[in-house]
Amino acid sequence: MNGIINVLKPPGMSSHQVVSFIRKQLQTKKVGHAGTLDPGAAGVLPILVGSATKLSKYLMEENKTYVVELTLGISTATQDASGATCDMNTDFSISPRELAEALASFQGTILQTPPMASAVKVGGKKLYELDRQGISVERKPREVSIYSINIMAIWSEEEDQIGFGTRVLLRVTCSKGTYIRTLCHDLGEKLEAGAHMSHLTRIASGPFQIAEACTVEEIASRAAQADFDFILPMVHALKDWSKAKVHPLVEERIKHGNFILPGHLLDVPEALTAGDEVVLLNIEGDVLALAEIKKADQLIIQPFRVLV
To answer: Where are the alpha helices (DSSP H) in the chain?
Structure first.
């Protein structure tokens, strides 16, 4: 059983718990996920089954899109709603224009300092483990990219002014490694008002969209009926890659990581040159391997990640 499940993770369930749940439903051990979602967050969590676990590295690199609610005037120790309130600012007034200008300043490549309540390792220990011991350590800022950040709604007591308790709903598309809670916290600092992330939903992770995601209840129901159509083929995760079907006689070479020649390809959507990467498929369209076009005495196609 190999493939990817687009899971709609519910709030209150950790990513690890979703993996355990899928293992139980499929009765298989080789299961992983492609990008952690905090327990309090909801949304798209790609789950990799069998050989698809070898694609984790590539799916982790994909961009993510979130819908996030931030609450102004309240800062928390964890930068989200789960943490204790560490500061409260009830005396500020911001115009919608000032909010929009502040948001615009975060678009592009920015530096983020990972929060203490995160899985980043410092000195071999995860930050959240140190945080639970009451230990705070220096963290190095990291570059992340915010590709777009848009206001979807504002809930405020005043029609024209934003003050304490105002909630702002944002849609954010960003690179891997972006901490949305930190984005909310830093925005609060920029506005000199304080803020925290009060809710988070991931609506897209690479090619996986929330509209096509399966709830854990749906998965349990269908698995009980031996209906596993919710497991997507591995090629679904490789939409932006060039793809080529190969002659059946060279499948064994590919399975052992041996190179093949361009003449062994049955179809190529565009011309391939040295340095290109391609997905090798069997004649049924199933993924065999990821490969690189290399120049030796002639062009060869060298698998670097065998998936069968």
So the answer is: 15-26, 56-60, 96-104, 127-132, 180-190, 216-224, 251-255
